[in-house]
Amino acid sequence: MSQSQAHVLAFFDAATFTVSYLVYDKVAGRAAIIDPVLDYDAKSGRTSTAGAQKIVNAVHQLNLTVDWILETHAHADHVSAAAWLQGVVGGQIAIGKGIDQVQKIFKPIFDLEAEFFTDGRQFDYLFAPNEEWGIGSLSAKALSVPGHTPADMAYLIGDALFVGDTVFMPDVGTARCDFPGGDAGALYDSVQRLYQLPDDTRVFVCHDYLPPHRHEYQWETTLAAQKNSNVHLRADTRRDDFIALRQARDASLAMPQLILPSIQINIRAGHFPPADANGKRFLKIPLNVL
User: What is the tally of structural domains in the chain?
Assistant: First the structure.
């Protein structure tokens, strides 16, 4: 395996400010899809695959074989297209082993069916912290980065680091830590571990929220830029200062618009809940819980 440059294509979903990625070894033609989005209309409850189809088109145009569909965590802001993509282009759906903690938190919140097991079996593969594998000739490593949720993972593939919801672009800062199981201190520790990687490591973020001073969305930076100028957490930021900043900021944030539908589907690896007796599938809206 090598630390050579990974080829990366980004797909930005403007409705949820999410960036999905297709990362691949051009010579071997092997690929992974990271954090894909299923279009979801909250007003009607309808889903569509228009955004995910763009990834499929790229896979076919580049003549790639998809080995993996990687989730950095169980997202609260968009519905995962992992299950649909698997049916079209294949690949194992994978996430970190800590997903069982998230499932245990949310099963009672949504009063999920008894047959919903909280051991991660809905996913094809669960990565252990620091587990290494390969995509074609590219080396790959799963890095445990809890804080936003207990189960967040970052993926180092070749020279590219996909950080999920840990840090965003340096002028945006870091992810929130006030969801069930979140922990600002854990996020600080996770990011500081990422900062031990080489400064020239390319960093690909999962979201961009376009701060007022910037005129276009961005999603690629470097670890050096994060360490030197992340507005919430530089390499020299004190742990207590970050925790205080993050907790104060989180207290001012509203819940993500799609958290209720997203979590119920995403902890199932992108599969919809089982059909009811009438053949329809339903999501639940718990009242006065979150």
Answer: 1
CA angle 3, 10, 142 (to 5 degrees): 40
Counts for the chain of helices (H) and strands (E), in that order:
7, 15
CATH of the domain at 141: 3.60.15.10
Q: CB-based contacts of 265: which residues, under 8 Å, 6+ apart?
A: 38, 79, 80, 271, 272, 273, 283
Tell me the per-residue pLDDT of 68-113, one tens digit each, with 9 for 90 and over: 999 999 999 999 999 999 999 999 999 999 999 999 999 999 999 9
Domain residues for 130? Answer: 7-266
Residue 26 belongs to some domain of the structure: yes
Which residue in the block uniquely carries the two structure tokens 């993500």? 256
Please, which residues have CB within 8 angstroms of residue 61's CB and are 6 or more apart in sequence? none
Q: Does residue 237 sit within a domain?
A: yes
